[in-house]
User: Which sequence fits this backbone?
């Protein structure tokens, strides 16, 4: 993986963590406007994830052989990557919920949570997992291209884009959960990343100032017009995410190596961090840790310490559980030949 992209993935996960920590931050009587502003937009970390995922799919499949076996092997590895990292944390989350507040599980979609077939964060046991069905779906699309040895990917994606536009124009959101997933506007963000990699030389040849302006303008539009819950999210926060990924590619190899060594582990553990922080904040509240910190007059230091604890715990779970489990699950799956 490209170091800058891996680091950006980790920072995006941390941004999501900040977003979900904001309620606790305010409940503890803390106030720091720069952090509150940054955390308020932490949901954009998901858009960054989607663009990066599209880029990674293009990078890993652009020059490989195609065919039925390759397509199946690709899907096996990608799906195992998602589920092998997800299920252990899901089990851990359920255990803590049963121990601390079992009633919370009464209104959850167990099947949707286990198999990642629901995008409704309010009914999922791990709320941030709403984004994973989109990941799985895009993997499936790439797997189909490989399986059927489809050469003209541009035509295939153009057809998909047209179908998405038709769906968005004719069928209201919520009428069909399946169609909402299959023809979601969020797929555009994966395509942003996919085509960014295919034509990366052209994109990174443009000046950094240009991409900074694009990022600032698109982010401003998303915030000013509150586009996060609309189909226009992809042309605001999606374009913003695309822009910063371009900048990350443009400056690959330019970061101080000490900083790379410090931040790359955050990227390595980003998936675990993205999933684990939800139950960690649940524990933070249910066990009275938050109240204890406030009553003991070290709310600020305690809050920062707990965020660091979440990051450290995520890395340890990644290193000792997620990574070896995925390696074990894919031990008999040969890598795709380039």
Assistant:
């Amino acid at each position: 993986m490209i170091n800058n992209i891996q680091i950006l993935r980790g920072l995006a996960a941390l941004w999501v963590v900040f977003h979900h920590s904001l309620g606790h931050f305010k409940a503890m009587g803390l106030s720091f406007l720069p952090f509150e502003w940054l955390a308020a937009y932490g949901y954009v970390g998901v858009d960054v994830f989607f663009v990066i995922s599209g880029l990674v799919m293009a990078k890993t499949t652009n020059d490989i052989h195609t065919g039925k076996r390759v397509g199946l092997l690709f899907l096996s590895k990608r799906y195992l990557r998602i589920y092998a990292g997800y299920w252990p944390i899901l089990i851990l989350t359920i255990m803590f919920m049963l121990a601390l507040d079992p009633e919370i599980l009464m209104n959850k979609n167990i099947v949707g949570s286990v198999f990642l077939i629901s995008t409704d964060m309010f009914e999922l046991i791990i709320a941030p997992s709403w984004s994973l069905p989109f990941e799985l779906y895009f993997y499936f699309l790439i797997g189909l291209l490989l399986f059927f040895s489809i050469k003209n990917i541009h035509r295939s994606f153009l057809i998909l884009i047209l179908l998405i536009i038709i769906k968005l124009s004719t069928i209201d959101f919520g009428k069909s959960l399946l169609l909402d997933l299959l023809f979601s506007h969020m797929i555009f963000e994966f395509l942003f990343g996919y085509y960014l990699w295919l034509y990366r030389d052209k994109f990174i040849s443009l000046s950094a100032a240009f991409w900074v302006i694009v990022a600032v303008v698109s982010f401003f539009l998303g915030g000013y017009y509150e586009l996060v819950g609309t189909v226009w999210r992809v042309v605001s926060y999606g374009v913003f995410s695309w822009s910063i990924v371009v900048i990350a590619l443009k400056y690959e190899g330019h970061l101080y190596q000490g900083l790379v060594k410090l931040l790359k582990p955050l990227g390595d553990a980003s998936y675990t961090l993205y999933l684990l922080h939800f139950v960690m904040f649940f524990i933070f509240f249910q066990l009275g840790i938050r109240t204890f910190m406030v009553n003991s007059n070290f709310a600020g230091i305690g809050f920062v310490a707990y965020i660091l604890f979440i990051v450290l715990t995520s890395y340890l779970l990644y290193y000792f559980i997620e990574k070896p489990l995925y390696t074990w699950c894919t031990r008999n799956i040969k890598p795709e030949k380039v």
Summary: Residues 68-100 form the longest helix (33 residues).
